[in-house]
Hints:
The protein is of the alpha/beta class. It has a domain at 46-228: Glucose Oxidase, domain 1 (3-Layer(bba) Sandwich), CATH 3.50.30. It has eight helices and eleven strands. The protein has helices spanning 5-40, 45-56, 60-71, 111-119, 141-149, 164-169, 225-249, 252-259, and strands at residues 82-83, 89-100, 124-130, 137-139, 154-161, 174-179, 188-193, 197-199, 202-204, 209-213, 216-220. Strands 1, 2, 3, 4, 5, 6, 7, 10 and 11 form a nine-stranded mixed sheet that branches. Strand 2 (89-100), helix 4 (111-119) and strand 3 form a beta-alpha-beta unit. Helix 3 (60-71) packs across helix 7 (225-249) and helix 7 (225-249) runs antiparallel to helix 8.
Amino acid sequence: MNKSRFPRLQRKNAILILSVLLFLAGLSQVGRLLAAQSAAQPTSPNEEATLLDGFRHVEVASVSDAMEQIAGRKMYMTHRMQPIFPAKFAGLAITVLLKKAEANNDPAALNGMLAAIDQGTANSVYVMVVEDGIDIAGMGGLMGTAMSARGYAGAVIDGGVRDVGYLRKISFPVFALGIVPSTSVNHYRFAGANVPVVCDGVAVHPYDVVIADSDGVVVVPRAKAQEVLALAQQLDFKEHSMYPYIEKLKSIQEAVKQFGRL
Length: 262
């Protein structure tokens, strides 16, 4: 047998093995990407409904505590973010960003903002960031009516809100930095929808879970939602179990010792 053939065979085998390894590595990468996408969005309407129903039945304070324990991050908005009436909701974030554009006479400058609303589905939460917009109404009655008609859970505005009388009339919940009569028309331009934003100091990505109640607003990254919900439910159960225990023993110290929750 011609010994000169062995190096060629070895090279061919090496190339074949390398090709297989690269192919397997590619499959692994695809698998990771698919897993990430699966974690980022609900895989079915039933999963989404179950997840959001769970968050609607826990307190925002428990969700905030769970986020800190699991991720070591503070994902709650500040005391400035206030509701226009007492409300509780949970939904998936649709993000919108507005940038300043003084003396802007472009009639299409805010079209993207309106398109984003019309593309939203039931259980969406409209999360808008208005650049330096504490005294600018990011939304009002017309936008709120459209969101309500489409089944949005609510809205969170890093900026102002107006037409609150009508929003209260239709019972559409909005958290905002303040109530102001101003408009964004001719002063702002649409800068993006379903993009990462920072709303009142908290990073929000599309499809993150946004939960709000009388204690404020918390954002849970979609990939952490199931884990955070499970822990929040445990924390809620412990706290609610402690109330009668404290009343009976007249001691918060004994209750904390018993349940390990404060």
